[in-house]
Amino acid sequence: MISSNRVFEKLSEVFGRKIIHTAINMGEPVVALDKGSIREVLTFLRDDPELSYQMLVELFAIDWQGQEPRFEIVYILRSLLHNGRVTVRARCGEDGVKTVSDLWNAANWLEREAFDMFGIRFINHPELRRIYTDDDFEGFPLRKDFPLEGKDFDKPFTVHFKEEKA
Question: Which 8-state DSSP code applies to residue 4?
């Protein structure tokens, strides 16, 4: 297993000031980055032979309502070679970050999920559209300002089939 300090050293050597913050959580490295360098750093973590974080385990978003930038994207990578994980975080607004779906196929649906639930855009995503909610759904259900009861919760629920809409 590669040490957290070695991961930080390698990232510092290559990216310097683009690394905003580093920490160790539960014995694993955590790296906070500027959103503009997220794709570059993730590619390095994947392709560097010493690090070899080749698996995207998770990608999720956090809503920090009231702060700027409002959202945080969190990537968790795993190295099967070293049996270690690294967490990479980047803050962004609704304008989002560049997609990594071409680096990991798993990112395709995870980015769509973040878009559907939070409205965060992933630039150059091949098919960024809703994945859980209906195409006509208004709002983003996991944002902290989304009404707990949902919109129009006091109105009767009706289903309109495509044939009826035409």
Answer: H
